[in-house]
Amino acid sequence: MRCPFDPSKSWHKSISGAVAAGNSLWLRVVLPRDFGVSACRLIISEDGKKDSVISMTWDNTDGIEEWWQTEIYLDAPKLLFYRFQYENSWGKTDIGAGKETHLGEISSKEKWQLTVYSPDYHTPDWIKGGIIYQIFPDRFCFSGKKKENIPTDRIIRNDWGGTPVYLPDENGIIRNNDYFCGDFKGIEEKLSYIASLGVNCIYLNPICEAHSNHRYDTADYKKCDPLLGTIEDFSSLCEKAAEYGIKIIIDGVYSHTGADSIYFNKYNRYERTGAYNSADSPYRSWYKFGKSNDKYESWWGIDTLPETKEEDSSFSQFITGENGVIDFWLKAGAAGIRLDVADELPDGFLDKVHDAVKRNGEDKYLLGEVWEDATNKISHGGRRRFLLGSQLDSVMNYPFRKAVIDFLLNSNAERFMHSVFSITENYPPEALHSAMNHLGTHDTERILTLLSGVSCEGKSREMQADISISDEALKRGIKLLKMALVINFTLPGIPSIYYGDEAGLTGCKDPFNRFCFPWGAENTDILNFTKNIALLRKEYEVLKDGGFYPISAALGCVAYLRYKEGAKRIFVVINKNPQPITYWLNPDMTDMIPVFGGVRFGGGVIVPGDGFAVLSDN
After folding, report:
1. pTM
2. Residue that is last in its domain, among 522, 539, 556
3. Which of 219, 323, 425, 484 is most solvent-facing, going by the fewest CB within 10 Å?
4. 272 and 248 housed in the same domain
5. Which three-class secondary structure state does DSSP give residue 298?
6. Of 138, 340, 430, 502, which residue is the catalytic one?
7. Shared-domain flag, residues 295 and 306
8. Would residue 340 show up in a list of annotated catalytic residues for this protein?
9. Of these residues, 369, 445, 501, 545, which one is catalytic?
10. pLDDT for residue 1 is more than 80
11. Helix 313-320 vs helix 347-358: crossing angle, to nearest 10
């Protein structure tokens, strides 16, 4: 029996993926003639509403199978879920999605998602088809330039590449106050290197003044941290980057500030009266105090990070108003904002952030941190509308990262394809093609560590510091990393490189994922491979915003096609088996040639064990 419904095929679903409001959509199911179906229905669910039941009409039959179809009009941006139901002499039976596949199954009640987005949803064109390079500023490159007005309570390291301090101090506090002094001028010196990776966007972790090396505890939103340089140094970096065709986006951390800040001033570092110092402080309304100063809400219970009230008019005006924080940095040269913990920010505040970013130019990029599927995320007491238009441009694509790592470690091809297809089906095209596809960030273990078979879960910092990777495990990890890069650079979205991953850095969780860049000691095998896959991405237009079509996923092997009218197609096969395979090509692919890995053989392509093949139209 043929699959009753496959949303990847236009014969079943007339518009691929998410659908812009104002369009009509045809849906068609196929059922065996001998089922004796007398009626078929489409059942649509929407949050907070009663299910809509729409009768489908009988379309045709070949004597063995028959087709039922219906047309629906999608009038406004919203999130819908749907399944089918047929009726015969035995009663009513559902047709829903498989638990780990997008294919329809008889008797399943699992629903497919239909994202209906605003037809006015447009994201910056410059980011599409590009590559993002993420930099943790303190650990990338130190220019040697002397800095002024450095707080005396900072530990200045002179051993570039040494292990970051990871143990608590004598009071049992992890202070994160050791600095290797990476700075704006250091990044500027390495722009030609970054450009050699095909990068067109640098994402900088926080750069505002703060009293920790991660700088997520903002002390002054309108001042560069003195170890990084001045606002003039930042603007110079943006200008010099532009000469290489590179734009710079910065972290926007608005859900909390530092307790040691101008605004809160718990430790009296600043002369200004902070919210902690007095109920009469102009910043008092920004925070959530209890009956005493010592009782205040903090981010995830960390008392050095007092939570802000984003909907407070004074705070939101300071961040998003005319000449506010967002205006300040975009006018200084930044090309966009990456929003820290975007899913913890209320919709009203996000709307204001969006408006502030876009009034500086529609080409400004607004990227949100969301760890799950951002189209159906529930937080702040309800379903979020991040990607329906007029809020975020796109998000960090954690579901892709999870799918890639899971596949390479566990070889479950079906689960990989289901995860990837779910995102390509749920995300509006504008969001999909501008999503940040990363294999690692400052919040995760280094990708090479994970793929070398090292698990950091449940291990203390002392245990993580002592982890070593054998030569054999590292060799295996590099092989898998190359496969991960091929996947990441050929899926829809923007591949991202976390500084040093291309040079072979390893490490477990914070702070071991934040080692200094190993200048002069790079792993040239990984580095050259990264440069080559970046060249491939740049060469093929289809990888910018082409469609995604799953070809197969079984027995540890996945294959997918990227396609776009008027452009050469790209066909990717990833073989997670230890032995080579011959993958037989569909008739319309037999003229394709290998452009990165693989060897053509007759009507197929030979793919090495734990390897890949990328083919293109001749």
Report:
1. 0.97
2. 539
3. 323
4. no
5. strand
6. 340
7. no
8. yes
9. 369
10. no
11. 30
